[in-house]
Write a structure and sequence with these properties.
By secondary structure, this protein is α/β, with parallel strands linked by helices. It is built from eleven helices and 66 strands. This is Pentapeptide repeat-containing protein.
Length: 718
């Protein structure tokens, strides 16, 4: 028989003093129910031990709970501070007309809380609830707000397939055992602010219609959001991820914020998609971070982030501006086959290990100003369709950009760690740009087999500009040699490179490649690609005079140097620089002669071929001596004077009587024979030898006069 109203009341002030934090209620709450039997409390506020003494089991308490929820009075929905053994409302529909919430705040459940496939159409308050056993809300439906802030779930918490049609708030809650929210649907705001997950938890294939809020949450173990979809803003700001975090195949339709997050284990964002800006500023990745095949539709911001493990950002499409400014990559970093549709900002970034941008594509500007590459900087086969800036960039090891294409490249005051560094631009295409090195650093550029367009070069030691660049079979398409005549004159030598070509660094394909394309990458076997630049023939081996002569005459690189100056000549002609074209043509012909010599001394050539080659050498040498390959008319004059003097001496040897009765008559006779022009009396040449000499000199003279006219006309045209 009841003795009156339940004496239980909840005093928030007293509770806060005892627990040191705010209570879920602002005002004192008193239970309106009748006391149980001869006790002073209702059966919900009796302790489990006292209920056991009275013979009240958990099942009857649960039935009483369901009965209370089925009444039409709002007062029957309050259970603040109640103590339950086990709550089982599974497979029930709790749909009352009233909108008053079911109040389970500060409730303690010593057993399990079972609500599998439960349908609840009223708001539910579970703030500060403590569930000692398992909590199972599998496939439950909540039609109104659910608030479980600062709740404690000491057993397994299962919300698989649960549907929260309105807001769900778990801010400050603690999940001591594994928590599963797989396939859950959040229809409005889902708030897990400062929630604590002390065991593995999973939100796989979950759907978030409202804002997803996990600010300052902590995951001590693995967490999985695989294949989840976030329709509104997602905020994981300052979250602690103690285990592996999986966001693979997630879709973020609004802004995603991971600022100041700490990832202690693997962070996996493979095949994810971000339709709006993604924020990872100041994030710390202590282990591997993988964003393979992820798509960023808008801005991707990683400023001041730290990657202590391997950073795998391969096969990514960055659709908006991408910011990696001041990021520390303390391990291997890969942007293999990634595409940057807008600006790519890597200023002040530090790459402590290999930085691999193999086959990356930059559609807009790319900034690497003041970035530091401690390990190898690998940009092989990259495409820069906008301007790429390497301004005051530091390369401490090596930098290879071979087989890349540049719309416009700026290499300005590149820095080293004190030694020499050669930037490998072999087989690249540089349509325009600037190479400025005025800080005294020993930086060299390997442009072997590349194509150079409208490029400006400025060096501190202007006299040694071309000592910093390796031009070898390089094609010039728009490069203006006229700006460097003072450097090239008087020798006009391009191959004065003083740097070293070191290809011993790793040229492996990306270690995280997802398709078998290792054979496509240059030097994919891990060694250097074939860098041989020798001509088609090598000097013959062997001892004796023949070997010494071959070594003196032959030049193993002559064929490549011939092509080098041929391409330089063609490039100079394209920009209308006839003077440079003339000088490079002379160099081309010189190395063509050396090439013929190389082949003439090669074992593989037949005797007939060798004789032909030696004939070509003689013709080439004759053209060089007589007219400088048609570029130097002064040589024709000089050769003509020598010819006149030689023939005068020969006339003196075969003609006994001096012409014109004077010793100088031999010279006059030689001049007349050379020019075939005679003024006044002629000298008599009495014998056959003298007449033969006069005839041959006349032939040579006519040839030299014609050659002089050709060379003079050509030089004036130049």
């Amino acid at each position: 028989m009841s003795v009156g109203t339940c004496a239980y009341s909840f005093d928030p002030v007293a509770w806060e003093e005892e627990h040191g934090r705010s209570a879920a209620l602002d005002e004192r709450w008193s239970c309106p129910r009748e006391a149980e039997g001869e006790t002073d409390r209702c059966r919900f506020h009796l302790s489990p031990a006292r209920r056991a003494e009275l013979g009240i089991d958990d099942e009857s308490v649960c039935e009483s709970l369901v009965s209370e929820l089925a009444t039409g009075e709002a007062s029957s929905l309050g259970f603040v501070g109640a103590e339950f053994g086990t709550i089982d409302v599974s497979h029930r529909v709790l749909d009352r007309v009233t909108n008053h919430p079911i109040d389970l705040r500060h409730v303690t459940v010593y057993g399990e809380f079972l609500a599998e496939q439960t349908v609840l159409r009223q708001p539910l308050l579970m703030d500060e609830i403590r569930v000692e056993g398992a909590a199972d809300f599998t496939d439950a439906e909540f039609g109104e707000d659910v608030s479980a802030e600062r709740a404690t779930f000491r057993g397994d918490a299962v919300f698989d397939g649960t549907d929260f049609e309105d807001s769900a708030r778990f801010g400050g809650s603690t999940f001591a055992r594994p928590a599963s929210f797989d396939r859950v649907r959040f229809g409005d705001v889902a708030d897990f602010y400062r929630a604590r997950f002390r065991a593995p938890c999973s939100f796989e294939e979950s759907a978030w219609r409202g804002a997803c809020l996990f600010q300052r949450a902590a995951f001590r173990s693995d967490v999985t959001f695989t294949a989840s979809r976030f329709h509104a803003r997602t905020d994981f700001r300052t979250v602690q991820f103690g285990g592996t975090s999986r966001f693979n195949r997630c879709e973020f339709e609004d802004a995603a914020v991971f600022m100041n997050c700490a990832f202690a284990a693997e962070a996996l964002f493979k095949k994810a998609s971000f339709a709006q800006p993604a924020h990872y500023q100041n994030a710390d990745f202590d282990s591997e971070a993988s964003f393979t095949e992820t798509e960023f539709g808008d801005k991707a911001k990683f400023q001041f982030a730290t990657f202590d493990g391997e950073a795998v950002l391969s096969y990514i499409r960055f659709g908006g501006a991408t910011y990696f400014k001041a990021v520390d990559f303390n391990s291997y970093a890969s942007f293999y086959k990634s595409t940057f549709d807008r600006l790519g900002d890597f200023r002040n970034a530090t790459f402590a290990d290999t930085a691999r941008f193999l086959k990356a594509e930059f559609t807009d500007e790319a900034f690497f100003g003041r970035a530091t590459f401690v390990g190898d900087g690998d940009f092989r086969s990259a495409a820069f369709r906008g301007t790429v800036h390497f301004v005051e960039t530091t390369f401490r090891s090596s930098a290879t950009l071979r087989e890349s294409t540049f719309e416009r490249a700026r290499f300005e005051n590149v820095r080293t760690a004190g030694g020499d560094v050669t930037i490998n631009l072999e087989r690249t295409t540089v349509d325009g740009g600037r190479f400025v090195q005025e800080n005294g650093a020993a930086v060299y550029y390997n442009l072997r087999r590349s194509r150079i367009g409208d490029v400006d070069i400025e060096m501190a030691d202007s006299e040694g500009v071309f000592e910093r660049f390796l031009f070898y079979r390089t094609e010039f398409d728009g490069f203006d040699f006229s700006n460097y005549r003072y450097v090239l004159a008087p020798e006009w030598v391009l191959h004065t490179f003083r740097g070293t070509v070191d290809d011993t660094y790793s040229l492996e394909a990306d270690r995280f490649a997802i398709e078998d394309d290792a054979d496509e990458a240059p030097g994919a076997d891990g060694g250097a690609a074939d860098e041989s630049g020798g001509g088609p023939g090598e000097p013959a081996d062997g001892g004796g005079v023949r070997s010494w002569l071959a070594g003196w005459l032959a030049d193993g690189e002559a064929s490549d140097l011939e092509v080098t100056y041929l391409k330089a000549k063609n490039g100079a002609e394209r920009v209308g620089d006839s003077q440079s074209a003339s000088r490079f043509f002379i160099k081309e012909m010189y190395y063509r002669r050396r090439t013929h010599v190389d082949r003439a001394f090669a074992h593989k050539e037949s005797l007939r071929s060798r004789l032909k080659l030696l004939f070509l050498v003689a013709v080439n040498l004759t053209l060089s001596a007589t007219c400088g390959y048609g570029e130097k008319p002064r040589r024709t004059i000089g050769f003509s004077l020598v010819t006149v003097v030689v023939y005068a001496a020969l006339f003196a040897a075969v003609v006994t009587d001096p012409p014109f009765a004077s010793p100088l008559g031999y010279g006059l006779l030689s001049v007349q024979s050379f020019t075939s022009l005679i003024f006044g009396p002629t000298a008599t040449v009495p014998n056959f030898a003298g007449s033969f000499l006069a005839a041959t000199e006349g032939f040579v003279g006519a040839f030299m006069i014609g050659l002089f006219i050709f060379a003079l006309t050509r030089s004036v045209h130049r």
